Amino acid sequence: MSQSLTQLFDLDSLLTPEEIEIRSTVRKFAAERIRPHIAEWFEEGRIPARELAVELGSLGVLGMHLDGYDCAGTSATAYGLACLELEAVDSGIRSLVSVQGSLAMFSIHHWGSEEQKQQWLPSMAAGRAIGCFGLTEPDHGSDPAGMRTRAVREGDDWLLNGTKMWITNGSIADVAVVWAQTEEGIRGFVIPTDTPGFSAPEIGAKMSLRASVTSELVLEDVRLPAAAILPHAQGLRGPLTSLGEARFGIVFGAIGAARDCLETAIDYAQTREVFGKPLAGYQLTQAKIADMALEVGKGHLLAYHLGRIKDRGDITPEQVSTGKLNNVREAIAIARECRTILAANGITLEYPVIRHANNLESVLTYEGTSEVHQLTIGKALTGSAAFR
User: Fold this and answer.
1) Locate the Acyl-CoA oxidase/dehydrogenase middle domain: which residues (predicted)?
2) Could you say which of 137, 295, 330, 367 is catalytic?
3) Does the active-site annotation cover 367?
4) How many CA atoms lie within 13 A of 99 on its CB side?
């Protein structure tokens, strides 16, 4: 009898009964509600995001690792497991949840005023309001300090002008957390998207993350009251702390995509006959499967370990970079290798492998490129910053 990856590494022994229950609940939802439709959504480049947001809110996964304001208040590890199960179906679904909970909601929860928290967090946790996070600009991705979006004071108000790019949830968002240069340094603003001068044209013609809404944010003389500023965030620490939350979810999520590819390849190899016997019976196939299983298993162990560190409040940005760099890099390599086992069938949407591979091309470079994470780790180990 064949073993599952969970059995091979005895992964469940590292989780609490509550975490296993949360994982099972999210896995069941993803299998029943999303998996039957995801290939069609990917092919058509659309997603019923508002409908899904309400369902994900009812499931309790939006901002689930935050406390209060109708958020579930789970452990960081439980949140990671939810990301893992969602990305095992599609990176776009996990992105919706990550941007909502780890970027938009976290920013308001961590840096916002009590009024901002009361106004937005309960409806965002329920999925009734969707949020986005505007940091990246057309010419400033890896170097956010160079952003050109500016906010200037006009009396008691703020006037914002600028452009943000590659913004998940942008054109369906009800609220945008946008970062801008001010005379005081970089500050964050909570912007209702029906504010005059704010627009969010959707970006199309994507070959990756097609089951996800990606947009540009355009701010043309957007006038905001003084109360719109995030009062407790000043400088890059604000947005970078939020990015660390999202990167943590990717550590888990990417390995979910890898697991799904591997399980698909094993199942295919067991049923596909070549030269009179199953493909799984050949040594070269088993070598590929064994090598990939090691990396998927190690990726789980790394994610779980980082989850425990985060749960006790000791995680560092360098540790999150280590997890993101390793797990995404291994996941995309596994997706490509699994495609070779499926051969020509691997390029069709009948199987999830090429879809995962395409999605992971985006995951590889968003929330910090591999090069940025390499330099972050290099700086931690050598004491020398090599970004410039």
Assistant:
1) 132-222
2) 367
3) yes
4) 31
